[in-house]
Specification:
Chain lengths: 288, 153
Amino acid sequence: MSPLELDHSTGVATGDPMLPDWYTVERVRRENHDTFTLELRARDGETHFAFLPGQFNMLYVFGVGEAPISISGNPAATDRVVHTTRAVGTVTRAMWRFKRGDAIGVRGPFGTHWPVEQAEGRDLVLVTGGIGLAPLRPVIYHVLAHRQAYGRVVLLYGARTPDDLLYDEELLFPPQPLSIDVDVTVDRAVAGWRGRIGVVTSLISRAPIHPDNAVAMLCGPEVMMRFAVQALMTRGVPVDRIYVSLERNMKCGVGFCGHCQYGPAFICRDGPVFRFDAIERFFGVREI
Amino acid sequence: MTGLKADWASHPIFEGLAPDCIEIFARTAKVEEFEPRDLIFHEGEEADRFYLVLEGTVVIQIFVNERGPVNIETVGCGEVLGWSWLVEPYRWHFDAQATVPTKLIAFNARRVRESFESRPDFGFALMKRFLPVIVQRLQATRLQLLDVYDVPS
């Protein structure tokens, strides 16, 4: 039995938030040279895991430590939990070495979610870079499953090089085109790359959306989001329809410990997804 | 509006220009088509044109000895290609090459520049439209330099 149950009306998990549940690694997929996807199943094989797009889990590598990782799977596939992350710290490097059958602790889901319901009836533009595509992938699954509920849906994705692109076969260059517009760019090209070169913000000015009826969801490095917000506002997307996902050093996941304080908010509890106008005055503050 | 003019006159770069200014462009506009790998302009040569991309993609390159051409950025459909024609000494700063079959509208930059002398208001209006393009490219280049996707471990 999972220690946490998701209240779908609020997106808040209930139960003992500090108690990890035991999951088993079902599959490890290497996405690129330092990024990988873990597919986890509850140890009892029966417990279903519900979450809302944009939420995260605290993943516990026994004997090593815990790390906050956004959930990147399909919200409709509750029989598994999927996380994509980069091997950049002690915990995630230990996860990189995981094999099928290994045990992992899961606490969650935590945090706020992307406003997929409020975006219904509108155009949707997802602006993301690098590993930032992972927390937005659940939005894409949701949109594809409810395609009629949205207008034009545009995914603008930037990566460092073509080798760093995530989910290229599934989302970026699928064999069968998806019912959304996808525009991909890389900062540095390599021989053989025939796609766009340049930063992801340069894609915004030509994105096929109606800005005054669009909702924007941004996830990636903060400096990328800073310039993306400017470009979106220049296009005419209202500031109260721009959402960003922030990342800080989250520890407890429930706003107790204070590690992820961001002005008056705790990112683990009040975020990671924020409406931009709610945090705009802190966004440019240094050392916050 | 018909024909070639309809392809470019509604572009934001021309928005709000007086009809006689639009005519200056109209007199010099022509369609140019390029195959993949065709060079559109070459660093150091006279910047006597500028373009709007109608179809296709153009890659901006710098040639580096012992490395060959290094791709810096791409310019795609609906975007402006070329600003060196506005800045002395009016020489291209980069190479530009088509990556796919590409259709451009080329404007005669020399004639447009000459018209600035008799119509400073036209020159000012055009500068106000091209400066944001230059700033946007500069900002994009700075972001590229930041290497924002490199997460410290």
